[in-house]
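Why does residue order matter? Because the sequence determines the fold. Keep that principle in mind as you read this record.
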Amino acid sequence: MNSIDLPIGVFDSGVGGLTVVKAIRDILSNESIIYFGDLAHLPYGSKGAKTVRTLALNVSRFLYNQGIKMLVVACNTATSNALPYIISEFKDIPVIGVVEPGSREALSVSEKKRIGVIGTTRTISSNSYLETITSILPTARVFQLPTPTLVPLIEDGWINHPSMYMILDDYLSYFDDKDIDTLLLGCTHYPLIKKNIRLLRPNFNIVDSADSTAKYVKSMLEKNNLMSSNNSSYMKFFASDISEVFIDLTKKILGDYIEIKIVEGAA
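Structure:
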């Protein structure tokens, strides 16, 4: 197979990375994608940095061995804690995380340059968004908040449950006196509750890291002359474990049933 027609590898600890898959497919319909959801070890956000690096490298190796032309780390926690290690190991293909694309998008839409960031405990404690945003624009103000309860609620299918709105509103109240105009969703699960956030805080610009990452994927494919010429693209899905909620959420995100192959010991 021509290298430009090889698939893009994408992974996350669970269902969140599928929001990136959908965003990529929406703007790059000719591209094939192989996805790995490491459900056996989710959530990454509550684990130590060393454990996250080990898990992320193992999944990256699995995808690389499938034959891919690009690797997308569609997990903020893995991007924040493992991206340099992954890039160092796989030097012959572009490796993309979600932090830089989201940071640049947030700066581009924020008029006040006062940006709120929500994410897992591990992502926020890494300061990856704070450091990336301020490295691009030192005068920007960044207000970060760990929101550890949101991923389990999403993974358990409680997106529209009253408890989700109650907990989400409590989290968002942290930003009420910060004078932010933009909220960066620092977790690829969070696009699934974008409507909830808009309802609770309609005055915020909301930056979806899935959409910004997909745009960055396209620009990197063009830069590296890797745009596919294939009109018969495909998607393959692997996971280290499975659940009914995961299957239901994949339908919600992608709009159709997908066949998922369980790969034990891949991570």
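The chain has a mean pLDDT of 93.
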